[in-house]
Amino acid sequence: MLEKLCHIADVEDPGSKGFTIKQGRKERLVFIVKKDGDIFAYENECPHAGMNLEWQEDDFLDTDKSQIMCSVHGATFKIENGDCTGGPCNGEGLTVAKIEIDDNGDILLQA
User: Fold this and answer.
1) Strands ordered across the beta sheet of 99-101
2) Helix, strand, or coil (residue 82)
3) Is residue 23 over pLDDT 90?
4) Can you name the residues that pair with 7 across neighbouring β-strands?
5) Is residue 32 a contact partner of residue 11, using CB atoms and an 8 Å limit?
6) Which of 3, 39, 54, 69 could make a disulfide contact with 62, Cβ separation 3.0–4.6 Å?
7) Alpha carbon distances (Å) from 57 to 20, 93, 94
8) With 90 as the cut, is the pLDDT of residue 111 above it?
9) What is the pTM of this model?
10) Peptide bond into 14 cis (omega under 30)
11) How far apart are alpha carbons 67 and 60 in whole angstroms?
């Protein structure tokens, strides 16, 4: 099953956007990052603390928008693969959320 998140043009480059998806009685928190025209998607959970990553709504990146940054402990992650690059995440990484981009430019999340 696919769930529409947004259109690719709805995300700045570089930029990020978070989503809360209802799946039955549960909510799934995911976010996407756009960098150099590419889209990357991850579960919104820090592997170190289990907390949401964003500083403010849709704000998942460091100040120069070159890495994903956890607002709680300052852990940093590569945009392209979610690997930890610094902070207390000790070699852990973000969990990838599987997405597709359809012919209309809509970003679709796989359940």
Assistant:
1) 2-7, 106-110, 99-101
2) coil
3) no
4) 106
5) yes
6) 69
7) 11, 22, 19
8) no
9) 0.95
10) yes
11) 9
